[in-house]
Write a structure and sequence with these properties.
The chain has helices spanning 13-22, 30-37, 54-60, 89-98, 103-115, 117-125, 138-149, 164-168, and strands at 2-7, 27-29, 40-44, 49-52, 67-70, 81-86, 127-132. By secondary structure, the protein is an alpha/beta fold. It has one domain (2-168): P-loop containing nucleotide triphosphate hydrolases (Rossmann fold), CATH 3.40.50. The strands form two sheets. A five-stranded parallel β-sheet has the order 2-5-1-6-7, sandwiched between helices. The relative contact order is 0.20. The model has no long low-confidence stretch (mean pLDDT 95).
């Protein structure tokens, strides 16, 4: 099984992936893989991010299974299931500011989270689940992801997390 652990930047993907790896899950960080395999193309100065060649990245995915692909583009690859980490937009903004992100990039990601952009993208391609990482510890969130991977994902189907009302207060 090939699994996407995805979500807006700042939702906890790498932290949770590290905990899953400690539990024996095989994990592949896509940002690191993209650098190693030459999948990074042009750098967008405005968005402060790299364009990734998904075909090159896909060809470079390790063949061992099961495997968890970690990254905010993982759900765009041919995976069996996607687990979208979600975070309340205001809390997400605080996390990104603490990481030193500039205000425009923080706002863009808060809006994407409020609109559920990643969830909608995953639902179009594969079976998807959501985990709200806003308040629970990283360990608890890793346990929930582990449960989903073990077939106990009830209550975490995509569409269960909804921050859309938050965006109404911004405009």
């Amino acid at each position: 099984m090939l699994v996407a652990l995805t979500g807006t930047p700042g939702t906890g993907k790498s932290t949770i992936a590290a905990l899953l790896e400690e539990k024996g899950f095989r994990v592949c960080e896509l940002e690191e893989l993209a650098r190693r395999c030459g999948a990074l193309r042009s750098y967008d100065l405005v968005r402060e991010s790299w364009e990734v060649d998904l075909e090159v990245l896909e060809r470079s995915i390790p063949k061992e299974r099961p495997l968890i692909l970690v990254g905010h583009v993982s759900h765009l690859l041919p995976v069996d299931i996607s687990i979208v980490l979600r975070c309340h937009p205001e809390a997400l903004g605080e996390r990104l500011v603490a990481k030193g992100w500039d205000a425009a990039k923080v706002r863009e990601n808060m809006e994407a989270e409020a609109l559920g952009v990643v969830t909608h993208e995953t639902m179009e391609k594969t079976r998807a689940f959501e985990v709200d990482t806003t308040s629970a510890s990283a360990e608890e969130n890793a346990r929930v992801v582990s449960d989903i991977l073990s077939g106990r994902g009830g209550g975490h189907e995509a569409g269960t997390v909804d921050w859309s009302e938050v965006i109404l207060g911004w405009y």
